[in-house]
From TrEMBL:
InterPro entries: Bulb-type_lectin_dom (IPR001480), Bulb-type_lectin_dom_sf (IPR036426). Residues 42-149, 150-256 form the Bulb-type lectin domain. This is Bulb-type lectin domain-containing protein. Keywords: Signal. Residues 1-25 form the signal peptide.
Amino acid sequence: MRNKIVATVAAAGVGAALLASPAVAAEQPPVAPSVAGAAKVASVLKPGQGLKPGHYLRSHNRKYVLAMQTDGNLVLYKGKTPLWASNTGRHKGAFALMQTDGNLVVYKGRTPLWASNTGGQRGAFLAVQDDSNLVIYKGRTALWSRYMYVGALPSGMLLKGGQYVRSPNSKYRLVMQTDGNLVLYTGKSTALWSTVTGRHPGAFVIMQTDGNLVVYKGRTALWSSRTQGKGAFLAVQNDGNVVIYKGHKALWSRHG
């Protein structure tokens, strides 16, 4: 099986579409975000606050910076090293908004480009932590982090070892393990399905822009969904099924 690696990103992004659109915004976006005076150097983005192009958040220990770049990409850095990105570059003038409904969204004008898919959690806020993590909290409950996608793995995005896609109801996790196996779990340790690609440390999985979900070790394909459909995405559903969709059409599922 020969598959071309496409749309590999320097830093894995986080969640977009649940079942259709590439980003989900649960409330009307403003024309531009309201940014508190200290927001560009604080470690927290509160409900209703945003980051305009060129503004940033910084961890308390000053080691990590979340920058809303002028090219439209929202990027977490350690020094000059990118750790995570929304992969929304080439959208000059885009901004990030921590909506009051709990959803973190990158907008270009009124068009959502990327979302954390954490809407329905009023009062949630974004924190840039001293441990290099980027987390959305509701109180003390973590709703999202830079290591996870919520609901779906969008077209062109990948999971490295230790990253995962979580179902919206938090009952299921599709984990790219550090041993190279892609595994669906329920609870803490009950495995429901896997690609059986263990013993390949360093492997990753990518939802290619051609619609094929592939587990790679370097440039060698270890497993593939054998699907085609430009813009297709992978969904981890509340019923425990893992499905590749092209729009609303199912191309593949773990149940065959």
